[in-house]
Amino acid sequence: MTSFEEAETEETATCLHMTFYHPCQEDKMVFRCLNFCKREQVRADEMANFGRDSNVCHYNLVDTRVSRIQFSLQFYRKLNSSEFCFEIKNMSKKTKLFVDQTELGYLNKIDLPWKCIVCFGDYQILVEIQEGESMDYFETHLHLTKVPILQERCLPSLQPIPENVIFPSLFPSQGKSPIEIDENES
After folding, report:
1. What stretches of 21-134 show up as alpha helix (H) in DSSP?
2. Which positions ≥6 away from 108 have C-beta within 8 Å?
3. Residue 136 sits in a domain of what CATH number?
4. Average pLDDT of 147-152?
5. Count of domains forming the chain
6. What is the pLDDT of residue 83?
7. What was the pLDDT predicted at 7?
8. Are 36 and 143 in contact (CB under 8 A)?
9. Which of 98, 95, 88, 109 is closest to 63 using CA atoms?
10. Of the candidates 2, 8, 101, 131, which lies 20 to 30 Å from 123 by C-alpha distance?
11. Is residue 20 part of a domain?
12. Helix (H) or strand (E) holding 16
């Protein structure tokens, strides 16, 4: 047998792709301690902590408005399943964490959707989970963007929509006249 045939089977790791945005990154360099564009392995039994305290957090955000530990991610496998997931927990007493439209207060936690946007303060993080097989570790792959993620993804705006605006795509019966029905008719 050749060394290729005797080599152990390579297993893939679940990878957490995270794209970071902050409006003041250019001036304040809040992400300067993060290792971008390089995959990093994290042991499955470790918490991935994000925050200001470099003694506790592997992923440091250099900003006095960020909590010592802002949030944590826990890798786990669902009961009676081979599916791997992440749980996100808000560790900040002062700042709410939003996962898509779900608001998490201090110590609240939820399962991380396979693709979502995590927000707190002015921070926006697009999180995408790439499935893998390894039970011993997962990987993180961090990216940086200069474009606001909420804007880039064309998510619904929180701006009010004037009542007199008509969106044709909402009315599939274009070109048909409305039919008036008396409320007493059946």
Report:
1. 25-28
2. 89, 90, 97
3. 2.60.200.20
4. 82
5. 1
6. 86
7. 55
8. yes
9. 95
10. 131
11. yes
12. strand 15-21
For the stretch 11-29, pLDDT in tens is 899 999 999 999 999 999 9
- The phi, psi pair for 117, rounded to 5°, reads -120, 125
- 168 within a domain of the structure (yes/no): no
pLDDT score of 81:
84
Residue 82 CB: number of other CB atoms within 10 A? 8
pTM: 0.75
**Two tokens, residue 161:** 């929509």
Residues counted in the chain: 186
What is the DSSP secondary structure assignment for residue 26, as one 8-state letter? H
pLDDT mean across residues, the chain: 84
- Kindly state whether residue 179 falls inside one of the protein's structural domains: no
User: Which domain does 64 fall in, by range?
Assistant: 13-150
d(CA 68, CA 53): 5
Tokens of 105: 């207060």
How far is the C-alpha of 90 from the C-alpha of 106, rounded, in Å? Answer: 5
Assess whether pLDDT exceeds 50 at residue 43: yes
Q: Across the chain, how many H-helices and E-strands are there?
A: 3, 12
CA distance 134 to 18: 19
On whether the CB atoms of residues 23 and 124 are closer than 8 A, the answer is no
Count CA atoms within 13 Å of residue 41 on its CB side.
Answer: 8
pLDDT tops 70 at residue 80: yes
Name the residue among 14, 11, 10 with its Cα closest to residue 130: 14
Nearest to 87 by CA among 69, 102, 75, 105: 75
